Amino acid sequence: MHWSSALKLKLAQKPAIWITVQQAQGSVPRGQGTVMAVFEDEFLGTIGGGHLEFEAIAESKRYLKDPSVAQVLPLEKRFALGPSLGQCCGGALVLKFERVTASDEHRLKAILAAQALEQCQPVALFGGGHVGKALVKVLAPLPFHVRWIDSRDEIFPVDVAPQVVCEHSNPVHAAVPDLAPRSRVLIMSFSHAEDLDVVAACLRRQRDQKDLPYIGLIGSATKWATFKRRLAERGFSEAECQQVTCPIGVPGIEGKEPEVIAVAVAAQLLQV
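Predicted structure:
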């Protein structure tokens, strides 16, 4: 959905060729249902880049320039990802080309929305501090739908991406029971006490539902050792505690700046 607004603005000015991956066989850069829009002067989205996309864009611009071609659209064309395209993927794609105008805007936005809903994974982010704000920006163009939760009033910025839903919850851990199934949970509130309550609520949910594939807690190994003792006092076993990732982020990235942590954490989420 991150380029739907740009699509609306461009279609209000001029028509475009809408490209859809109708079929995908073998090793291909993008799967069936992937879309992009080609205008005379630019394009939005991608079907995978490389020479395949170069040819698809060139073909689309020929369709835009030649009025007679509009009579034969929509049409489908097969592309083999072999030597003729300067690629060695070995797969093949069938692309559909159709001419679209501003009158098609709502249909195209619906396609983008459905695609985003199908591809995006739910993330529950507890904490609106510096790292939380940096992480939301990094996650915005990635295939995640973020539920951003904090116990403080007026903590969220006004310009969040469409796929980010801000929520006030006090106590903050009260939001855990109704998280979407398969949510990736990130815990980074302003308070260690809040963090502990959220971790405990997630582990209680895991006992009953086992539907949180990732529970990540920001902090050091020392913080996690302290949390494990306190969780044990609350009746959680060692095996249950092993479901928590702390520290968070892919190993080997040592920077402590919020933006650096955000990139490391986003990369780890993509591995889940």
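Summary: The mean pLDDT is 90.
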